[in-house]
Write a structure and sequence with these properties.
two-stranded antiparallel sheet, 4 domains, 599 residues, 4-stranded mixed β-sheet, mainly alpha
Length: 599
């Protein structure tokens, strides 16, 4: 392969042909260099093909081809070369596109280290790397760091000659970062510079110009200048369709933007005071809950993707949003949107179907538009894997340790309450097969009676020990830190008791208090506990705090009696544990120590 001839033809195909023609040409050339055993050429070609796969949304294929390039680099002893750094950069970009932020950052840092060793600190490749790192930090919701890396990239590219496309692209990236920070004037200035550069280039519009046009359309849409927004989106759609085809993920996002702008433009032309326009603008400014966003995203985009691409598997699917995240509990607000929040839903499949088609369905899911109703999912390294395609068996194992309902009382005993809360929150939008909902319903039926009694015995024993006994003793000894911990144990075990008596699973600590508002019984305890938590552990407050603890314990005792779980009137809760334990039937559970419950 003569490099100059290959790249001349490839550039010509990118300029005048379709991306499919370019892909076919790369693959044919790769087949030839493999026959010739020209491994260095294979590395270059693999990088080119990986780029094509990435921009057309075939991320798994892109990863595979870049891995081939890296293995070839290793075989040739080319580690820490410029080509090695470039390949790492390209692979990182694929992980970034797939929202795998931590993996992308790891690879970018490896590439940066190589570039620095090679003296490429001011090279266009380092600028590209910074640009890509900006994108990852944007995904993580770290807007300031994202802007910082975009500015670093611009500084490098501006000092280079002959890098007009890279410069225009960098201005476009910088504009998006400004938009995320609500700095519209700076964003417009950067976009105007990007447009100026792109329109000065010879030949047909560069494919990267579409991103600039889409961003400009987004800016005009925010400013309610819908006629201009439509114009920008139409131009972007034309470029994307010509290069990537109508079915690409990029084209779908652009089309949604265009349709939304056209709709509002039409209403504006009908009448500036058209009620529908005012209502729609009001809805755009009203916050949609995470569950509502997920269901709308599925209804408008996900359902069609499934029916068009996987009609043979739809009957086996359950779809919804369940699991980790405040939105699954219905507790999300504006603060929740900073990370691990945005459009997305779960598809659960029987294990055999998941093994057969899960990866393929996940790839299609990944190609859905990343932005929906002005929301883009901001995923942190810790928050990945919350949406997408899952095996029913593995999904439930993650939270309960079993792929089905716990098979006996011992298994029930050892599943943490907070895990059960996570596994049963949220909403199932549809369940065609019924298996996911069968398990879910079984868990929502709550603990078997023997487990409920055992857990209640353990909780009230801890309430008595920490609040009615140890707190005062700690304060008398002047051990205020120990008293603080005793009060904390009392509060935590009281909250768990309240949930148990409501036959509801307690969420993890961040949402324990918030979730109490949804419970039917013992609502009066929440303000009592809030008062308890607000009082410092000082000698002056000891009597007041112990009075509140005693009042809480009496309230719990009364509810236990009302439900027929105990019969005595003693205010000291520990003295009611025997009543609870005596009603347990299973000898394995009955024989356990009172305070043990497997949590």
């Amino acid at each position: 392969m003569k490099p100059e001839n290959f790249y001349q033809k490839l550039d010509a195909l990118f300029r005048s042909g379709t991306i499919q023609e370019a892909e076919n040409y790369i693959i044919r050339t790769m087949e030839q260099v493999q026959k010739d055993n020209d491994l260095p050429a294979l590395i270059s070609l693999a990088n080119e093909l990986g780029g094509v796969f990435r921009v057309t949304g075939r991320l798994e294929e892109a990863q595979k081809v870049y891995r081939v390039a890296l293995e070839t680099i290793r075989l040739l002893g080319m580690e820490d070369t410029e080509q090695h750094g470039t390949t790492l950069l390209n692979l990182a970009s694929v992980h970034s596109e797939g929202k795998e932020a931590s993996k992308a950052l790891e690879l970018y840092e490896q590439a940066a280290e190589i570039f620095k060793k090679k003296g490429l600190t001011h090279d266009y490749r380092m600028a590209a790397l910074y640009n890509n790192m900006s994108h990852v930090y944007d995904l993580l919701g770290k807007a300031d760091r994202a802007l910082n890396y975009a500015e670093k990239s611009l500084t490098i590219v501006k000092a280079l000659s002959g890098q007009e496309v890279e410069l225009a692209t960098t201005y476009s990236t910088l504009a998006v970062r400004y938009l995320n920070l609500q700095e519209e004037a700076k964003a417009e200035e950067a976009l105007e510079e990007s447009v100026r550069i792109f329109t000065s280039l010879p030949g047909k519009p560069n494919v990267h110009y579409a991103a600039t046009l889409n961003s400009f359309g987004d800016l005009r849409f925010r400013q309610q200048r819908y006629d201009e927004a439509v114009s920008f989106f139409e131009k972007a759609q034309s470029i994307i369709t010509e290069n990537y085809g109508k079915s690409s993920a990029y084209a779908q996002v652009s089309l949604k933007n265009l349709e939304k702008a056209r709709d509002l433009l039409l209403q504006t032309k009908l009448s500036p005071d058209f009620p529908g326009l005012r209502e729609q603008n009001s809805r755009l400014n009203m916050r949609m809950t995470g569950l509502g966003l997920a269901e709308a995203y599925y209804d408008e985009l996900g359902r069609a993707m499934i029916r068009e691409q996987f009609p043979e598997y739809e009957k086996y699917m359950a779809v919804g949003l369940v699991g980790e995240g405040s939105e699954c509990f219905g507790f999300d607000d504006e603060l929740s949107e900073s990370h691990d929040f945005g459009p997305g839903f779960c598809i659960w499949l029987p294990d055999d179907i998941y093994r057969a088609a899960g990866a393929q369905i996940q790839e299609a899911y990944n190609r859905l538009p990343k932005t929906y109703r002005n929301q883009s999912r901001q995923t942190t390294a810790e928050g990945g894997g919350r949406v997408g395609v899952f095996s029913i068996d593995e999904y439930y194992k993650k939270y309960t340790g079993a792929g089905d309902l716990p098979k006996d009382l011992v298994e029930w005993l050892f599943v943490p309450e907070t895990s059960l809360a996570t596994a049963t929150n949220g909403k199932v939008f549809v369940d065609h097969w019924g298996e996911f909902s069968r398990i879910r319903s079984g868990l929502l039926n709550f603990y078997p009676q023997d487990i409920l009694l055992k857990k209640l015995a353990a909780r009230i024993a801890m309430m008595a020990q920490s609040g009615q006994y140890n707190y005062v003793r700690c304060m008398k000894r002047g051990e205020t830190a120990a008293a603080y911990l005793s009060c904390g144990e009392f509060i935590k075990n009281t909250i768990s008791t309240v949930y148990l008596l409501n036959r509801s699973y307690m969420p993890f600590y961040k949402w324990m208090f918030r979730g109490m508002d949804k419970l039917d019984h013992l609502k009066e305890i929440k303000p009592m506990l809030e008062r308890l938590a607000a009082m410092p552990d000082t000698p002056q407050n000891t009597a007041a705090k112990t009075d509140v603890m005693e009042a809480v314990c009496i309230t719990v005792r009364d509810e236990l009696k009302r439900q027929g779980l105990i019969s005595g009137n003693d205010a000291f809760l520990n003295n009611h544990c025997r009543d609870l334990m005596s009603n347990i039937n299973d000898p394995r559970i009955k024989g356990l120590p009172v305070m043990f419950d497997g949590k």
